[in-house]
Each structure stands twice: as C-alpha cells, then as structure tokens.
Amino acid sequence: MNPLFFAIFMVFVVAMLLLDLLVFHKKDHVIGLKESAIWTAIWIGIALAFAALLYFFADWMIPPTEPLADPIAYRHEVATEFLAGYFLEKSLSIDNIFVMIMIFVSFGIRKEYYHRVLFWGIFGAIVLRFVFIFALGALVAQFSWLLAIFGIILLYSGVKMFRKQSDEPINTTSHPVVRFASKHFPVSQADHGHDFFTRENGRRMITPLFIVLLVIEFSDIIFAVDSIPAVFSVTTDPMIVFTSNIFAIMGLRSLFFLLSDVADRFWLLHYGLGLLLCFIGLKMIGGECLDWHIPTLASLAVILGILVVSILLSVIIKKPSR
Length: 322
Description:
Blueprint: H1 3-24, H2 33-61, H3 71-107, H4 114-142, H5 146-163, H6 176-184, E1 197-200, E2 203-206, H7 208-231, H8 238-250, H9 252-260, H10 269-289, H11 296-316
Antiparallel strand pairs: 1-2
Helix pairs in contact: 2-3, 2-8, 2-9, 3-7, 3-8, 3-9, 3-10, 3-11, 4-7, 4-8, 5-10, 10-11
C-alpha cells in the first residue's frame, strides 16, 4: 500500500462527506427521485473515474508485492478487480437498503430525517470497514484456506436468502439493539426532531432517533459479514477491497432514496442476490479446494448479468398477490 495514496484517498473521502453534510444537505428535507438519481449518477461516475485512474496509475496507487513483468497487464487487472468488487458490493448493498427501508418504516421515522441517520450510519460503516477489511486481509494472507470457509458461509447465506421474505417487519421493542440501548442508556421517549441526544431534567439522554442509528449500524455489521468476504473472492488485496467498499457505501444513501419508492417493483432482485451469493460462495470454495480459476472479467460479467436480469424480470413478471 502506498501511504501517500492512502492519505490522499482518506482526505478525499472525508472532504466528500463534509461537503455532503455541510453544503448539499445542510437542512433536513425529503430527498426526491430527481435529486437521488442525480447523486446516484455522480457517485457511480466518481467510482468509474477512480477505476480509470487505476488503469493508468495502479502500479503507483496500489504497488504490487513483486516486481512487474507487464505493468500494463497489472494496471488492467487491478482496475478490473476494483470494478468487480465495486459492482458486487453495490449489488449486495441493495438487500441492505431493503432492510433499512423496513427499519425506518417500522420505527416511524419522518422522511426528512432519513439522510441524517444514513449519513452518520455510513460514517460509522467506513470506520468499521477499515478495521474489518484490513484485519481480514491479514488473516487471508496467512491462512488462505479461510476463503473456503467464507465460501461455505456465503453459499449458506445465498440459499437462506431464497427463503427469506424481504419485507419482514422489524420488531421495534424486542430488537436486540433496542433492548441493549434501553437497558444500558437513559432513553428519552419524546420526539426531539433530528437530535441524537437531549437533556431532560439535567440528565443527558439518547433519543429514539439515535436508537434507529444504532439499529442501522447493527444491520450494516450483519451485512458486512457477507459482503466483505464476497469481495475477497475477486481480490485478496485489502486496498482494492477497501476502496471498492468505500465507493459503494458512499453512494448508498442516494441509491437508498432512488429505490425507496420503487423497492416493491424489483421483487425478484432479492432472489438474484441470493443467486449471486451462491455463485461467489462456489467460486471461493472451488478456487481454494479444486484450484478453479474464474477470470475477474468473467466474474464482473456474471455480477452485472445477474443484477440486470433480476431487475428486468422484476419489471416483466408481475409480482403474485398474497
């Protein structure tokens, strides 16, 4: 890892987050379809621009561990791995978006506060992803057989997703995060707008909105258990995994608002994501146990193919009524 590039990248991430919070979304408001579509396009465009930079400068940005025989081939492979990791994380994050929608609806959160909760949720996710990815990368470098274990977990998760209902309601009283927060912290029962903390009778308390933030963070941790090992099926370089994850989750908010009003239309996407997890799981198991080698470009084609076909079939085939 190039320390200078890593520093530049993190400065860019922090700058974009501050720009988002302090300039573009300084005031609470409901994010409309047009605004979310524009920001989704912007974030995808930024990720593609980063892939282009990798195509030309990957040997400086993410230096290889061994001397290069063909620098051009290395740059091409790194850029392709980044794109495969980015679109894989982006695809799997759609399932997390469905969960987030159910969390907000179940807790009765007003739509103008969605962005604020998601912003701080993603800020926390970036910190957690940094720790998780580089720790996992160090383990995989020492014990490559862990990839097969992750493959089995992903295969199980994929099969389980076929049986899971994407619109299962969230129990706001028995949820483990709610019970933990209520037991260990003073919780205000009043509505305090967009504030996460308040004072009542001189006592500092957390608000219901902060509990929703904790539930969002908890759901992201559960989601990361599947999504991060999945990206390691594309590349074992922690820096490529980290950058692809960061670009995907930084565009998560705009994608959330883009899908929130039409999520029910893409009813087959849930099954497509289950199929995608099964493919990645089999790829990891086969690569470690049977010495299978699926080119990164082929993996990228499968990822995009499953995503596109699932969306198209959802539009073409009418969802059966219950």
